[in-house]
Amino acid sequence: MKLDKPVTGGPCWTELGTTDLAGAKQFYESLFGWRTETDPRQEAGGYTVAHLGDAAVAALTPLYQEGQPVSWNVSFAVPDADAAAEQVTQAGGTVLVGPMDVFDVGRFAVAVDPTGAVFQLWQARSFAGAGVLNAPGALGWVELMTRAPERAVEFYTTVFGWTVNASEHYTQWGIAGDDFGGMMTMDDKFPHEVPAHWLPYFAVVDVVATAGDAARAGGTVLMEPTSMPNGRGLAMLRDPQGAVFGVYHEPPQP
Q1: pLDDT per residue as tens digits for the range 166-219
Q2: CA atoms of 247 and 141, how far apart (whole Å)
Q3: What residues contact residue 177 under an 8 Å CB cut-off, 6+ apart?
């Protein structure tokens, strides 16, 4: 991710919905060095914000609806949540929740793209989203896993105006050419019951060490640390409650 702060159309926030908020807090605090604060207001429903220093970087929440899966969700910044929700519908997606106000901090909606991946729209008011991106312990990349990549490209370029950098093996999403994420096609290796979804990757200093720390803390290494030709490293992990996420390291630029 070349972005170091939220920009219009780009990923601005990520939230974990979990069955065990206390256990998730302990796991991610130990893994990323987060400091978590739970909103004490009853109407906040246990919403917990994770910080690196003074910067908010992610949220952890209880499951709010019956049937909601344990998973990480990705939010994209929009100037007008209502207008963006209308664009989602016109482009073939579905708005599941909202748009609705969240206290005085912003306005949001939950949507699903035509390929089945759920994502969120965030219109900032007093809260713009993550205070830092692409730094150790913060959101470092977002990846769409889908069985219909061509339909996904059509949808997201229409709704957000993303640029597309496609190669034979991988497609990258960008804002005016600054890549922040990618897309993988779900093949027969993925169980049929696993829907299309957005996956967050958190930047880390050492992918191998982080994967080891996750395993020792009760998580599972789904994909062993892998080095890419460009020097990047990544691994796929699952937390003790079942939420899947990635970790990612990009070497310093010369």
Answers
A1: 887 889 999 988 899 999 999 888 888 889 999 999 999 999 999 999 999 999
A2: 9
A3: 163, 165
Render pLDDT for 89-146 as a digit per residue (tens, 0 to 9): 999 999 999 899 999 999 999 999 999 999 999 999 999 999 999 999 999 999 999 9
**Other CB atoms within 10 Å distance of the CB of residue 151:** 14
Strands 244-249 and 233-238: antiparallel
Q: 191, exposed or middle or buried, with CB in 10 Å at 0-12, 13-18, 19+?
A: exposed
Q: What residue type is assigned to position 178 of the chain?
A: D
The model's pTM is: 0.94
How far is the first Cα of the chain from the last one, in angstroms, to the nearest whole number?
16
Give the tokens for residue 230: 């460009």
Residue whose structure tokens are 């702060």: 5
